[in-house]
């Protein structure tokens, strides 16, 4: 049975960082609640994997990055994209399959990338982001810049062979990559105990000569602290870090999965550690948090209106670039 991490306070980061993390968490939460509503109305189709409950991981890690740094995301990627600065209008339009979206409506939820903010993209192939990030890290090393890559992935992906190959390579070359393993304790309906004999996954880092750090993934302040330290190390040329952030989904694997295999008592414990409420409490200033919430609410309303009023892609646009050879 997964055990939630111990309670405890984390040191307060600078005010703009704290408020920025709350903005990311609140925006991700509201964006996804709206997506679920639109999905139930048949206005979003295909797969949708909510990140609700895990938002502090993306918010904390991205708060430690510069605009020029890269992220690589997953099938559960809305929080990563929003925390790295995605445009909610383009994201909502993409998820609703509209021509104005990030991929002109051709990709949907699992194919959002954004060159403007160096988001190298979500990925529907579990684990596939890990070697992409490792390659991006190699590119940075060859170019000699001080950029860093953060790659998000979960426990299931860490049992994929590319995890071992990538960390091995990153360890040898000292690549500037932060491997951020979001241990949400499930891969679809398979609990981590049934997928690996070792549930503390940070321990895999030292096997490749890489520091392995474990952090409470529901504590944005703690994630920020560990991510900032790992990013600083990478920028100094001291190589990669594996961070395991322990967290939990607030629901099933995707929007249509009721998650009946999840123990309600364990879920309730994790919900009591809701990253949104914890970050709002850390701000401890109702006026400041309410101001952020009002801004995000307005931005989200505009995004839904933009997406709703946007046209669907034409059949010709879908076929463009495809030719018989
Ligand atoms: C290579 C590959 N194998 C299987 C799948 C089907 N699949 C989609 S999500 C998922 C579980 C992934 O678990 P984890 O990496 O823990 O991510 P989480 O869903 O917890 O965020 C699986 C098996 C896939 N998309 N890609
Ligand atoms: Mg998982």
Taken together, the total number of domains comes to: 1
Tell me the span between the first and last alpha carbons.
53 Å
Shape: globular
Name the CATH superfamily classification: Thiamin diphosphate (ThDP)-binding fold, Pyr/PP domains
Question: pLDDT below 50 for ≥5 consecutive residues: which ranges?
Answer: 1-7
Describe what this molecule looks like in 3D.
The structure is a single chain. This protein has helices at 15-40, 55-62, 78-83, 88-95, 129-143, 161-173, 192-195, 220-235, 264-271, 275-283, 286-308, 315-319; strands at 70-72, 149-154, 177-183, 186-187, 190-191, 212-216, 241-246. The protein is an alpha/beta fold and 325 residues long. The chain has a single domain, classed as Thiamin diphosphate (ThDP)-binding fold, Pyr/PP domains (Rossmann fold, 3-Layer(aba) Sandwich). α8 (220-235) links the parallel β6 (212-216) and β7 (241-246). α1 (15-40) crosses α2. The protein binds thiamine diphosphate and magnesium ion (MG).
What tags apply to this protein structure?
325 residues; alpha/beta; Rossmann fold; 5-stranded parallel sheet; two-stranded antiparallel sheet; 12 helices; globular; binds thiamine diphosphate; binds magnesium ion
What's a concise summary of this model?
With 325 residues, the protein is an alpha/beta fold. Helices cover 43% and strands 10% of the residues. It is globular and about 50 Å long.
